Records
---
Amino acid sequence: MLGSYIAFDLETTGLKPGEHEIIEIGALKVRNGKVVERFMEFACPKEPITPVITNLTGITNEMVASARCSQDVVRDFLGFCEDDILIGHNVIFDYSFVKVSALNLGDQFEKSGIDTLKIARKVHKEMESKSLGSLCEYYHIENQAAHRAYHDALATAKLYQTLAHYFEEKEPKLFQPQPLIYKPKKEVPATSKQIGFLKKLIQNKGASLEWNPDTITKSEASRLIEELCSKP
């Protein structure tokens, strides 16, 4: 079992790095099996948090209104991580968001990690759900605030220790840190059709938007079109 690592978790406005945003980072730094430092901070997104995300995480727009922007929070989190191994539940999801943010800051953020979800899929094939909540319930691990970043990170650390206790001797390879590999999708420029449709929508809706038809990407154009179409 690793004696030193960082267990971390994020809350985000959606599932797509580069398109959606980080709204909370929670992490704990473990040294010789003991928590020596914690990281808990909201990040204020550029776009409002949707009711769906609020229902899932409990995080409201009011809670993040006075928070720093995600770039500042991520910059501090990168420093917090130092050269540690990262541990997470479906770790590549959280890693991908930090990786994209790090690249935007000019940092590579190349890490190795251990995924408790990957371990659970191997050693608990009989379980229908391998979610963090289901595994915590199975092992009687208390999580005081599920779907909040720090509490999920703490629950993940406890789950890792529990799984290592029961299974590391039998499945040592599962508990070896592996390079975390995520290649951000290359942004594609918006099509002329999208730009034309967007201009028409802005005019018809009387909307006031700051955007540049020369630099807008396909995903950004799609998001703006979807937002404008949903407005009465």
---
Amino acid sequence: MLPVVVVHGGAGHIPKERSEKSTEGVCSAVRAGYVVLKRGGSSMDAVVEAVTHLENNPAFNAGCGSVLNVKGEVEMDAIVMEGKTLGSGAVSAVRNIANPIQLTRLVMDKTSHACLTAEGASQFARSMGVPEVPMESLITEYARMRWRKNLVPDANPVECQMGKMGTVGAVAVDSEGNVACATSTGGMLNKMEGRVGDTPCIGSGGYADNQSGAVSTTGHGEAIMKVTLARLILFHMEQGQSAEAASDLGLAYMKSRVSALGGVVTVDPQGQWAARFSSHQMSWAAAQKDTLHYGLYVGEHFTQGIDEPLLQGI
């Protein structure tokens, strides 16, 4: 069953005119992560590679497609975690960084800390030689349009979040059975300056443990934090539930307890995987045994050869 990599492009409502780009984006990202695994790379290498691809794709709410805060600026959160030693690195409220997920890897590998925030994270990035980019390079016209629309005093808060592309993430198991997760986001549309969501929080935005599996989450960050969704799903797996059943149980609990929708990608150390969501849509893709799996709507599951051009679903 090994190796395997699974990615998501965010849970929510994806406008029809943007759904094709979303599907193509997750499939491209999962292929990139799978190439790393096939060449003998680690699960951590694979999830960072996959999420870097998603951060570089303006169709997603991460990196160069990030949504804007109330001031019209980009502030991003990200996390990585590996299951062998429970090593983790995260950044929150970072600006002027093209690939926050790569910065989280440096936090994990080069510091004794788990999370760096805002200016402290920027100082660390500079010390590591990570180039700063102009904020304008991270802002798309689509993000600016959504920001302006949501500044209207009587804007509907539910409709405000519709149409945003979601948080991105990946989970993987390598040929040695080590699991890893990576999650990256621009956060919530028109959020307060300095708002930090679930993504950089261990157990909420992601969790990885070789004894149970790995999870990357997407959805309403405040709700995900309240139920520590990633860790909750792995708790169910520790109780004997499959990746799919555990994912469904976690999402159902979040819906019943705090009335929130979301989505996850999940793997266990044996290579069983799941892409599950309670929202209307979640773009996702998986690669295993040279087969590409992908979907967008509940119950949708297309398969084809890993190197074939996308034939269905878009």
---
Amino acid sequence: MSANARRKLASPTLAMLPRVADSLSFLYAEAVRIVQDDTGVCAQVASRNGTDRVYLPTASLACILLGPGTSITQPAMATIARHGTSLVCVGAGGVRSYAGIVPSSLTTAWLEKQVRAWASDDLSLQVAVRMYEMRFGQSTAPPGATLAQLRGLEGQRIKALYRMMAIKYRLKRFTRNYDPDSWDDQDPVNKALSGANACMYGVVHAAVLALGCSPALGFIHSGTQMAFVYDVADLYKARVTIPMAFSLYSSQDPEREARRRLREEFRALKLMPQIVRDIQSLLDPDSSSGNDSGDRTTDLVHLWDPDAGALPAGVNYGYEFIDVPLE
């Protein structure tokens, strides 16, 4: 076999890469240097014996969360993007998501569905109703309910869940509090809940980006580049992050323990494929692609036409106007 043929076989292609629904959920990195070497992408950290290296399975990860003290080289970022893995910059312990990086080789099919639903008041409300019923069960949204009514009902249900969890774990009282400026003063449940939610945002952000959707075009949240991420992440808090956070009420390191347990929950509950299916169902419930698991391959670029629909690119359409006099 020639050297050129071996290089082609070794180079990852879109068809070889795993789909986002089949990926591991996330990897949190802090105080490391991520580089590309001859073997792959690795995280380096200085130790007494020199430099320790841990190689990252970039093609099998949906998302890498870059925490404080982390640096990354351009070749490593290029490899991660080529593998379809999203990079999300986060604060300490995974709290706060600042920015996300997405590969350019993604189809816009789901983005177009999202924009059409977002731009229509009627369709947007229908998406909000579907979100509510995904969280609390089919037919739980009152017929003809407004968005304000849905927000009120959601708030009542979450408060009731907090009370139920506090009673279960024999906590005298619980008040949801998220204040990054006084982070160390918060109780373990609030720390665990904030840390778990932040990691959830990172993973949902990765799923949204992997489908080619816009994180900014939300149907309930608005005014932030993470609006749609917050919308989708809310679907899983009552089932996953809230019960888990309350179970860590006596933990000495609730943030770290929350991240560890959340990874286990993603694997045990198969949440990554669920997130992909839920996003697709929200945006297009009647689509025949509802069972698609988020293929990262992309169609060829096409041209848009209001009458003819999608037209092939790379074609000279000048002949259509050959008889039109030019001034």
---
Amino acid sequence: MKQEQFEKFQRVFARVIENSPFYRAKYKETGLVFEDIKSPDDIAKIPFTTKGELRKAYPLDIQAVPDEEVVRIHSSSGTTGDPIVIPYTENDVETWGMMMQRCMTIAGLTKKDRIQITPGYGLWTAGIGFQRGAEKLGAMAIPMGPGNTEKQLKMMVDLGATALTATSSYALLLAEEIAKRQMKDRIKLKTAIIGSERWGEKMRNRIVDELGVDIYDIYGLTEIYGPGISISCKENNGLHYWDDHLYFEIIDPVSGEVLPEGEVGELVVTTLTKEGAPLIRYRTHDLTRLLKGKCSCGLEYPRHDIILGRTDDMIKIKGVNIYPGQIEDVLKGIDGTSSEYQIVLDRKENKDCMLLRVEKQADAENQAIEKSLKRHFKTKIGIMIETEVVCIGDLPRSEKKTARVIDKRYC
């Protein structure tokens, strides 16, 4: 940890103890005081902050500034309980916009670009985050929001959009529609900034081929500003993150032990300069690793690997833990499969079973793919599964995030 980072860490730690009802109560309960954190090694003494705790802090116990300093709020969806509400000061909005501007600059965008923004607006952070970044860059923002694919394509052509921001699912849907309508020669897209969900190499290659764009992988989450806390560069060798505003740790998701650089674990983030709702050692549930050394692109900012999965996305079946990234790794090695898949979990004769449905390329043979899928799955993951091969477009598409797992075992 850099000395400058540690000094910022101490300042934000003191601020939340003084001003955040949530953290004041949390640390009082554990007996932790500011004087306990004398060196970077002492950070390990600080308990993690969890998503469940932030839900209990609803609506604004996390807030660490007076109401008159709050200029905006965003929140999570709240589909599994109370949403997590995050207040922003003017400085927070400015910092976030600067992060997004950095991302767009790394992706090669300039004032001359026209950026079509398809993620959602409102309480969700994505749409307005991309728009703020585009405005700070001086580019033209086309604030479409999600859905209405017919209008998306019309505006993309008529306004000459040169860059697209989207979830990987919606980028693929748009790519498929453009190919189906033979519109590729009418669009001017050259860059796509994709985020919000994990995606595999086959999906990436399909979007690149069908849209004819350079792709940049962007990362973020509502609790930590929103999208834009890291992005891949032209070398496509990990994502650069902004260590002047954020402190990243990787921990063992079971023991909580901090892992050395290069080892895969759960990402933990501390916001070093956030004012409205600073977070100390927040467990993201995202699995990645910190990458060693300087990137060959020349940027000084450190890197983390792509998001390999989430600790809460794990599927347990027949005593085996399976992450989505392992499924994508299996598909990568099988000729004739496309990028899209769906997992159906069920119980038959009091035993768990798994059906893997995959899409195939037009000229591929179903029987050969099914045989190869079963063999690779058994070899790489360790269990026997059922398979079903369907044509491209048969599996559901989404304008947001695609639900890939259907669990019928407890219905």
